[in-house]
Design brief:
The protein is mainly alpha-helical and 130 residues long. It is built from four helices and two strands. A hairpin with a 6-residue loop joins strand 1 and strand 2. The protein is extended and about 70 Å long. The N and C termini lie far apart (75 Å).
Length: 130
């Protein structure tokens, strides 16, 4: 049997699910108590309408965007299969696969630090000249 909740019931259902989840977002695992300042969102499957869990508003938005992008990206299979392939791809590349060759635009933490310092020196010099 399926049941559609009324808009007036959404807050009660969200509160009940949130309590069952231990007031944590299942994706980012951050607290969603009032003190944590994370807005809870009642997540649902847009294809079926079924409720899933309560996500923080940030994760709920990201989940929706990622799923929409997966829908656009998939050339073979479902969105779920594409996302599963993406996770396997990430796992396969935790360890460098191509001899530790870096992308030409990548900056190491040290290179980024040096660039910030150089920019700050230029800014200080410009302020001093005025």
């Amino acid at each position: 049997m399926t049941v559609r909740i009324k808009a007036s019931q959404a807050v009660t259902v969200r509160t009940t699910l949130l309590k069952q989840q231990g007031y944590k977002c299942p994706l980012c695992e951050q607290s969603m108590t009032a003190a944590a300042n994370k807005t809870p969102a009642l997540d649902h499957d847009h294809a079926t309408g079924y409720l899933r869990d309560v996500l923080c508003i940030n994760c709920n938005g990201m989940e929706g965007r990622v799923f929409s992008l997966a829908r656009r990206a998939r050339a073979k299979g479902t969105e779920y299969e594409w996302l599963a392939r993406l996770l396997r791809y990430y796992e396969r590349h935790i360890t460098p696969q191509h001899g530790g060759v870096f992308h030409h635009t990548h900056k190491t933490a040290e290179e980024l630090r040096l660039a910030r310092n150089a920019k700050a020196r230029v800014k200080r010099a410009a302020l001093k000249a005025t």
